[in-house]
Amino acid sequence: MQRAKVMLRSVYRSLMTNPVSGLRRMSQSSLAGKVAIVTASTDGIGLAAAQALGHRGAHVVVSSRRQANVDKAVSLLQSENIQATGTTCNVGISEDRERLINMTVEKCGGVDILVSNAAVNPYFGNIMDSTEEVWDKILSVNVKAAFLMTKLVVPHMEKRGGGSVVIVSSVAAYQPMQALGPYSVSKTALLGLTRAMAPELAQLNIRVNCVAPGVIKTRFSSALWQNEDVVDEFKKQLCIKRIGEPEEIGGVIAFLCSKEASYMTGETVSVTGGISCRL
Ligand SMILES: NC(=O)c1ccc[n+]([C@@H]2O[C@H](COP(=O)([O-])OP(=O)(O)OC[C@H]3O[C@@H](n4cnc5c(N)ncnc54)[C@H](OP(=O)(O)O)[C@@H]3O)[C@@H](O)[C@H]2O)c1
User: Fold this and answer.
1) Does residue 39 have a pLDDT over 90?
2) pLDDT by residue (tens digit) across 21-32?
3) Which branch of life, at top level (predicted)?
């Protein structure tokens, strides 16, 4: 009995001092002490990103347009032992964006990570029938707000000596989806925005990367995955013959924000189950 106890103690000691297990512990908590803002994070991919960042030790600041959704998301994250704060923020409204950043700096002391995840799609139909209002709305929320949010956080990241921005685009950026022309174009613009900002922000030790999810099971895409004919059509393009889950995007976002991705910037990672992504 005594011998077994001694052996167990020695195995434990060796695990604690072993450089490989040490590294594993370090990488699990590799975002400890970081503050992460995730927009549109009370559901779907944004919420999954908040969970992935939080489980790696970051303090996450969640937001969306509705207070009830924010409260629910904060409670969920806290029930998973994640440090979480939240506020409402419609990313299309300038005062909301500023309030989100100010609240984060006041409550959390700074900003290290921004996940720009919010997007809208108010229009289904032929692109040639889409109106100026549709284009204004889509470009304002999906593209302009992603840039303006980044512009707002950069001075705070600079104060911390660097940071990481991840922008959520879509497989539609590469292959415009039928009836989703303006939305698809806005997602292509985000690939350009990522590349345009990366060189300037690298000088401040801020990395900017992008994720292009395929079809992921969320409310946003329910019109696609609830329609069996559409799913069957998609499956023809997929190597992995199923719809993706939000967690499968959240983990990639957390990876891009971590030290493991320290040599990546200006990059778009497609997470599509194998759909070919080329412009
Ligand atoms: N699901 C897919 O298949 C898929 C594929 C490729 C890319 N994406 C992209 O992934 C991102 C997230 O989509 P999702 O599928 O995760 O959507 P989702 O599950 O429907 O969640 C949308 C979230 O956005 C919030 N929201 C909506 N409009 C907002 C606004 N103007 N400002 C702030 N928050 C807002 C919603 O909360 P409130 O209602 O409280 O505002 C909710 O938290 C989008 O950029 C989308 O284009 C999705």
Assistant:
1) yes
2) 444 445 544 899
3) Eukaryota
CA of 4 from ligand 1 middle (Å) equals 54
Looking at domain 31-271, its CATH architecture is: 3-Layer(aba) Sandwich (3.40)
Q: How much is the pLDDT for 27? A: 59
CA 117 to centroid of ligand 1, rounded, Å: 7
Catalytic residues: 183
- Please report, for residues 28, 79, 113, 148, 255, the alpha-carbon distance to residue 209 in angstroms, rounded to integers and kept in the order given: 21, 30, 11, 16, 11
pTM: 0.92
Beta-ladder partners of 42? none
- Residue 257's nearest CA partner among 167, 150, 170 is 167
> Between the CA of residue 151 and those of 96, 250, 279, what are the distances in Å?
14, 23, 27
User: Residue 119 CA: which ligand 1 atom is closest?
Assistant: 45
CB-based contact 176:121 (threshold 8 Å): no
